[in-house]
Amino acid sequence: MKRYGSVIGLHPDAIAEYTRIHAAVWPEVLKQIANSNIRNYSIFLKQPENLLFAYFEYHGTDYAADMAAMAADPKTQEWWAVCMPMQAPLETRKDGEWWADLPEVFHVD
Fold this sequence. Notes:
Blueprint: E1 2-10, H1 15-22, H2 27-35, E2 38-46, E3 51-58, H3 63-72, H4 74-83, E4 87-88, E5 100-102
Antiparallel strand pairs: 1-3, 1-4, 1-5, 2-3
């Protein structure tokens, strides 16, 4: 298992809608998350900075293939089309990132 953390901005005028839709994520999207070997997935909101922090645990053996399968899923693509306009990617993110990856610097069980 590997832990992942990432961060992205959220447009201030989208906070209520983003929170509302994440209170009832589409079942097909939740199924794809599970099929892509993601467990213990959470998104947190830090205000007033309007930053979203995501955490999940990956339990598969081929992360690239599982993420490609998720990206190819039509319902997940629809979900992302709803969510992405509300998000504000960090200017400091690496090429190819939407959510900026965060390196783990500490962990204890």
